Amino acid sequence: MDVFKNLIQTRMFQKGEVNALHDLVEIRTEVVYTVENTFKLRQNLLLNVLKILSLTIRYRQTRDGRQLFDYLEMHHGIKPEMLDTLYKYAKFQYECGNYSGAAEYLYFYRVLVPGNDDRNTLNALWGKLGSEILMQNWETALEDLNRLKDVIESNNQAGTLQLLQERTWLIHWSLFVFFNHPKGRDLIIDLFLYQPQYLNAIQTTCPHILRYLTTAVITNKRRRTVLKDLVKVIQQESYTYKDPITEFLECLYVNFDFDGAQQKLRECETVLLNDFFLVACLDDFIEMPDCLYLRHSAEYTNASV
Question: 30-37 long-range CB contacts below 8 Å, 24 or more apart?
Answer without folding.
Answer: 31/96, 34/92
